[in-house]
Amino acid sequence: MRRRFITIGFAVAAHWAAPGGIAATRGFDDTVKPTLARYCYDCHDDDTQKGGVNLRAFDSARSLQRDGKLWENVFRQIEERTMPPKGKPQPDAAEYHRLVDTLKDLLDNPDPEWQPHDPGVAPPRRLSRAEYNNTIRDLLGVDTKPADRFPPDGGGGGGFDNNADTLFVPPVLMERYLSTAETVLSLAARETLVKEESVWYTPEKWTARRNLAAFATRAFRRPVESEELDRLVGLFAKARREGADFGKAHKVAAKAILVSPRFLFRIEAARPGMTPQKIDDYELGSRLSYFLWASMPDAALLAAAKDGGLSREGGLEEQVRRMLADPRSKEFARQFAGQWLGTRSLAQTASPSLDRFPDYTVELRDAMVEEPVEFFHALLAGNGSVLELVDARYTYANERLAKLYGLAGVKGDDFRKVALADRKRGGILGMAAVLTKTSYPLRTSPVLRGRWILDEVFGTPPPPPPPLVATLPADDKERDGQTLRQRLEAHRKKESCAACHARMDPMGFALENFDPIGRWRDKIDGKPIDASGMLPNGEIVDGPIALKDAVLRKKGLFARHLTEKMLSYALGRGLENYDVPEVKTIVGRLEKTDYRVQTLVMGVVESLPFRFRRPLEIAGEAKEATAPAIAKSPEAK
After folding, report:
1. What is the pTM of this model?
2. Statement: residue 631 has pLDDT above 70
3. Domain extent listing, the chain
């Protein structure tokens, strides 16, 4: 008995000595809470809650670790010395380092009892417009992009349109599914649908059953079930009885497949249990193909799922390398990079004045949009460092874009790798699509550009501006003897604006040599450009090269945000507090391999939330939820 108590005592002692136990409690009570009380509660308490943040509400290490996502953001701002803001009492060096070290320890070592491993939910996810187009192309060989005529997808958590929470099915979309199925089947080659013709010595239903089984397996991205196949063969037989020939009767059943929830949705079965459940190889294959190709699994991936190849050691990595080497991986670059950077929607989000910038043609705009896609795709194929997204001595351009950049020797519409003479341009901060997106029709916007960097490069967006903020001039000409920069500096002196603008404006000013469509310039309104600014930590940046150096000094922050974005895109949902440990694990792997992009991709694919899902009892989901509006359609019965 005494031995048992000793064992229990050691276990309890080990728990309370762990970061989530008494050591964490003491760290919170002795360091975090009193420091926050001295410097933060004035602005972030029950009553004030600036930026919607109430730090006084956190009264223990456990409450902090349970809301790791918020506290990671708090930690970043404290580490950057942007909080407390200038003009407010500041902790001395010893207090600052003690607070940073304690917070880092609490956030990096959560107690699993307080922040358990949770892969999250996996609700039925409708195919996005891009995914539908690509799937129809790969299933039927029809590349007419029919989903471009569907209602727009929403932009959910993480900023991506493949987020399950925003992929609704309005009635008009159901109508489009029905009409589109008819259209694409009429365009598909017969041999795509009918692999085996009926002959006199083979019962026609057997032949139809084999054809429909093969087609439905590809369309459903898993083996078709016997009951499903019976219904499809029944539709075929009914059409034959009504006078349709073999091919037309087959298309009737194929149409039912194309409007089935099992085609239009990616549905995974939640199974009973109380621990994270590994998804099966067919479900994993679909997650993989829609992550890397935004399309259905190909024959090789389905074969790997069938023989258990994705579960064997090295099998998953083998498929990832193969898929990244496939030309279809450019769609990953198009969808992920284009949505992360916000450049995919340039036509809708930017409108430079054509009187002021007549060179901004549709063709040039399209070339701007394509540059980050070509750049990211080449990075994937070559397994380059993600830090090249910040600073590279090359880019990808065609003749139109090269002319805008002042690059000689590039002819034609095809994109190619182009060496750059210096570091001013290379990387996302010098890409014309980004610079145009963050400008107004007649002038640049240091505020928009600085905010974009905080949001999309560091993942530390400022809070929304206060109401009734004064507007600045529409162009960058001097007014009343003041330049636009001088007006911005006056605006920054207001107490309600100073903290955020101190973070945004210096980075935006560093890009002022790029005009509203991304061309290099040395003067504004005849005067030399001042591209300098002081960051909140006292660091001076002057121009894009210095800005890149400042970003690279925070490469861990950039890698962390890029990981969060890619994991969110891969999962089709916004990240939650329980995802924070997984993000940190992936970033740790990334740092050990010189930030190679394929390490990032593999880290996402091998992560807990990508390979597992919540069990039925915890998820509270139906075993196989479907979309009622679609399930009720006659063709889907």
Report:
1. 0.88
2. no
3. 2-108, 125-268+627-636, 277-325, 334-552, 555-613
